[in-house]
Structure formats: C-alpha cells, structure tokens
Amino acid sequence: MLKDLTVERFVREVASNSPTPGGGSVSAQAGSQAAGLLSMYCNLSQNREKLGDVVEVLQGIGEEARFLMGKMLEAIDEDTVAFNRVMEAYRMPKGSEEEKAKRKEAISEAGRYAADVPMYTARGSLRVLTLIDEAAGKGNPSAVTDLGVANLQALAGLTGACFNVKINLDMISDRKAANDLDTEVAELLAQGREIYESNRKTLEKEII
After folding, report:
1. CA-CA distances (angstroms) from residue 10 to 15, 30, 78, 131?
2. How many domains are contained in the chain?
3. Tens of pLDDT, residues 9-28
C-alpha cells in the first residue's frame, strides 16, 4: 500500500520511471496532509481557560478533518488502482467488432472510475479549505503557520485532483456524465481559489 510507505520511499517511487504513483496520488497526499495539519491546529487549541467555548467548535472541526484525512489517504492507493484499470482496458483485444465494443465499454468504465477517485480528493480538499476558514483565528496563535501550510496543501490537492479528473473525461462514453463532471470541476476550482485567497489574507495577518 502506497499510503503505508515511508515518506522517503513514497517520494522515490514517485520519482521513478513508473507512471504510478503519479499526480493523482500526490494530490491525494497533499489533501490528506492539509487535513492532518488542520487537525493538529485544532488539537493544539484545547485550552478552554484561554479559548472558552470555541474549543468545542475546534474539536468538531478537528474530528471532521481526521475523517477527511483518512479518506484521502485511501485515495492515494485508489488513484493508482484506477490508472491500472485504464491500462488494462486499453490492452484488451480489438480484433473483432465484438472485442472492439467490449474494449470501448471497458475503457469508458475505467475512465469514469479514474475520474471519480480524484473527484473525491477535490471535494475533500475543498471541504478542508472551508474548515480552515471556520477555524482561522479561533485557535492557538502559535500554530497559525501550520494552518497556513494546510491552506497551501489543500489548494494543491484540489487543483491537482481537478487536473486528474479532466484528463480522464474524454474516455467516458456517457457525454452528459462527463460534462457534469467537467462543470463540477470548474465550480470546485472557482470556490477553492476564492476560499484559499480569503484564508491566506486572514492567516497572513496573524503571521506577518
């Protein structure tokens, strides 16, 4: 499992001449790291004497962040599985018309799965950006730089995942489904960039 590798081993696998793990897995890793940093910020903000009732708010945010972290960690491996399915579909025989039809259908199904996996990462990363907005300014000021890095990583996870959704859309034979995914990608990117920029301005007021 890729998610179980050491950091060094994972990075070296990415750097190898193998097409996997690639950008989709790295995007999922970025999203999971963003969620992890957000969770840390919330965990470091448990001083009720100083923060009052806001501690309960941060506890709820931290709990959701850890859930998202776990799901995006799973997506690190799922993205590689999806890529392999696409390759297997393209290797199917295409000698007869029947074989061509089965191959085309398999490519479409694999392409849909290869788009669905990074779409989850994109949605999860956008949610992390939203949670950062909700947490910013409420927690331990000593951990605000960690929240700033979470903001950067969440945008990277979102953007990279959206790239990986779009690159697979041409394989999907159901054009309405492909167009719906394309529309959602545009919406996710627009929302994510807006929230990221708002978060950046808020956090930099504390950092700089």
Report:
1. 9, 13, 15, 28
2. 1
3. 999 999 999 888 899 999 99
